[in-house]
Amino acid sequence: MRGLELSGATSAPETIYALASGTGRAALAVLRLSGAGVPKILAAIVGKVPPARKASLATFADPASGEPIDRGLCLYFPAPASFTGEDCAEFHVHGGPAVIAALLAALANFPKTRPAEAGEFARRAFENGKLDLTEVEGLADLIDAETEMQRRQALRQTRGALRHKAESWRSKLLEAAALLEAEIDFADEADVAPLAREALAGLLAPVREDLVAALAQGRAGEIIREGVTVVIAGPPNAGKSTLLNALARREAAIVSPLPGTTRDAIEVHLDIGGFAFVLIDTAGLRETADPIERIGVARARARAEAADLILWLSETGAPPPADLPVEVPVWALHSKSDLDGGATPGFLAISAETGANLGLLTEKLAGFARAAAGEAESGVITRERHRRAFLAAATALDRTLAGIGGPVELLSEDLRAAIEALESLIGRIDVEDVLGEIFARFCIGK
Ligand SMILES: Nc1nc2c(ncn2[C@@H]2O[C@H](COP(=O)(O)OP(=O)(O)OP(=O)(O)O)[C@@H](O)[C@H]2O)c(=O)[nH]1
Ligand SMILES: [K+]
Ligand SMILES: [Mg+2]
């Protein structure tokens, strides 16, 4: 595994430890260790190296004084069958801050042992070939998952949904590359070429089709991961902030009878029907001399342009202005229907005051997410990074197939580009720029 070279260390890496469970008072806490020093640390703190992969009741003692710190469970995972591929251990102890502090202090006294950095356990798992880059990303997403759809998608990715696809495509492309190599080696024998080229196209075409099919699923996976962005826009006083608060079930935005109350865009993250939504309240759209309100109006327009959906709110049933971004779908809502019945054709009548039709609106939003996410259960692209790699591989394969009858050197070069795109996807090459970004977002202890 290429990733091994990353550590680049001539001596064994230091043993790392961290509190893996959350901070604050809790019934239990989990401390986690990884590195070659783990067996010695176990012998010193719990008096023995417990049997592999079995929970053992243990007394955790301070090696310096011999004084017991706590009683709990100890687990030992010898290398290489562990999360990081190194010797690992877990201490399951009581969650009191003093227990945790005493254990961390005891661990700090061992030589070549130090606290882990954010994401360092996952980084070691990656470097030891336990996880590929897409599985690491899946793990980061699983820890961040707030909705059911996010959790399911992230779990699929940690279990290698994307890795297995990329690996199987890559192995077909490597097979094709071997055919080309053979052709170069036997360049004198003129009858090798046509047959080999046919076999080559037969290998490449299905991979290209799979890549194109995955790309055709659009932003489905990204919408699940990042959330559906919905902008609430409309004239001043249409009731935009009141609607935001009603959907969020809290006073996220200031509501007042004064037009021009909202200036900054106000973002609320919601779970609707298992889908993540980013709901954005904006300044009422109008011509105004107030310089601050004008900035607010410009921001409202910018947010609307980047949205997946615009909710156009009007208490008079006024149509949305012609200059709303054309690519973004707009749903027209007649607000404050408790005042006038709100019967404007083409508008959904709602009242944030009485709650009329808010349930229906929420259902429609969930339906919109479901449609946007498409057949997400089978979708594998969950980030822009994946999309770029798929696109680069598909484009290189297009070139390869278009030049299938041409010179072998050109074919080799195009095929190489497709293979490299897949290798960067799973983290066999070009990893450093991506790694830093991914691991920095992990919490300590993962
Ligand atoms: N009767 C009734 N009044 C409402 C309803 N929704 C909002 N209002 C009132 O309308 C006024 C304006 O509401 P906001 O939510 O501040 O309107 P806005 O569109 O955010 O206004 P700006 O931020 O100034 O553009 C407030 O006095 C609200 O109480 C509704 O459904 N029914
Ligand atoms: K207002
Ligand atoms: Mg407002």
From TrEMBL:
Identify the cofactor(s): K(+)
Q: What GO biological process terms does the UniProt entry carry, in alphabetical order?
A: tRNA methylation; tRNA wobble uridine modification
- Where does this protein chiefly localize? cytoplasm
Which positions are annotated as binding (6S)-5-formyl-5,6,7,8-tetrahydrofolate? R32, E90, K130, K446
Q: Where in the cell is it found?
A: Cytoplasm
Q: Which UniProt keywords apply?
A: Cytoplasm, GTP-binding, Hydrolase, Magnesium, Metal-binding, Nucleotide-binding, Potassium, tRNA processing
Enumerate the Pfam families for this protein. Answer: MMR_HSR1, MnmE_helical, TrmE_N
Q: What class of enzyme is it?
A: hydrolase
**Quick one: which residues bind K(+)?**
N237, S256, L258, T261
Task: List positions binding GTP.
Answer: 237-242, 256-262, 281-284
EC number from the UniProt entry: 3.6.-.-
What does the record note about the cofactor?
Binds 1 potassium ion per subunit.
Domain TrmE-type G, chain residue ranges per copy: 227-370
GO cellular component terms attached to this protein's record: cytoplasm
Query: Is Magnesium there in the keyword field?
Result: yes
Binding locations of Mg(2+): S241, T262
Q: Does the keyword Plastid apply?
A: no
**Single annotated GO MF:** GTP binding
In terms of HAMAP family, this protein maps to: GTPase_MnmE
Subunit text? Homodimer. Heterotetramer of two MnmE and two MnmG subunits.
Name the family the entry cites: Belongs to the TRAFAC class TrmE-Era-EngA-EngB-Septin-like GTPase superfamily. TrmE GTPase family.
Q: What does this protein do?
A: Exhibits a very high intrinsic GTPase hydrolysis rate. Involved in the addition of a carboxymethylaminomethyl (cmnm) group at the wobble position (U34) of certain tRNAs, forming tRNA-cmnm(5)s(2)U34.
* UniProt-recorded name of the protein: tRNA modification GTPase MnmE
| Protein species of origin | Methylovirgula ligni
The root-end lineage is: Bacteria, Pseudomonadati, Pseudomonadota, Alphaproteobacteria, Hyphomicrobiales
